[in-house]
Write a structure and sequence with these properties.
By secondary structure, the chain is α+β, with helices and mostly antiparallel strands. Helices cover 42% and strands 12% of the residues. A hairpin with a 2-residue loop joins strand 2 (67-75) and strand 3 (78-85). The longest helix is centred in the middle third of the chain and has 34 residues, at 102-135. It is globular. The model has no long low-confidence stretch (mean pLDDT 89).
């Protein structure tokens, strides 16, 4: 936040839209719809869910302009809608996330929880889907996964230097995107933060 806004970025400026996007299923829907238009059934098939479980989420995302209809097709007597994400990146207005108000703190906690939950659901689904494909005779092709949690004591200067290097690596990751739906999608979640601990209160036994 506070950095130059990347091209193709949707800025969330109100609490209602933040609440809509702070949901693991809706986050995954947005990710699936970034590269090419798809209907509800297409997305449901990719997420391993029944289409009936997604209609409410699609309606909420469309109502808040996070996705949009880009094509319609006549299928028998029905009109089938094809959706696409309104942007490639979604960022939250910094004013919504602060420790100065209870609402700001709640928004921040909600966003952190949503990011962690989305990563967890996406990784577990990916492992399950890959296992299913291998059981169906898909050729083996070993790929690396990094899932780690480490702690290090750093000076503020060293932490800022590491933060900048991570940002550069993230930009490289984004710029490498081929935008080709036939290429395998890779997910990257980064969390770098000062890890605080509660101290004993003065006078507490």
């Amino acid at each position: 936040m506070g950095e130059k806004i990347r091209e193709g970025t949707f800025i969330i400026r109100d609490l209602e839209t933040l609440k809509v996007i702070a949901d693991p299923i809706r986050n995954q829907i947005l990710e699936v719809l970034q590269n090419e238009p798809q209907n509800v059934k297409d997305v449901a098939d990719k997420l391993g869910l029944a289409p009936s479980k997604l209609y409410y989420h699609f309606n909420m995302l469309e109502k808040h302009e996070l996705i949009k209809v880009v094509e319609t097709r006549q299928v028998a007597n029905l009109i089938e809608k094809y959706f696409k994400a309104s942007a490639f990146f979604f960022e939250v207005e910094p004013a919504l996330l602060n420790f100065e108000t209870n609402e700001g703190k709640e928004n921040l906690y909600t966003l952190v929880q949503a990011t962690i939950d989305t990563t967890r659901e996406d990784l577990l689904r990916s492992l399950q889907a890959r296992s299913f494909l291998l059981d169906q005779g898909e050729p083996k092709k070993p790929r690396s996964i990094i899932l780690t949690r480490d702690l290090a004591n750093l000076s503020d200067e060293k932490a800022e230097e590491f933060h900048q290097r991570l940002n550069q690596l993230l930009e490289e990751f984004i710029e490498t995107d081929t935008k080709d739906p036939n290429d395998l999608t890779y997910a990257l979640t980064i969390a770098l933060y000062p890890s605080f601990y509660f101290r004993d209160l003065p006078g507490k036994d």
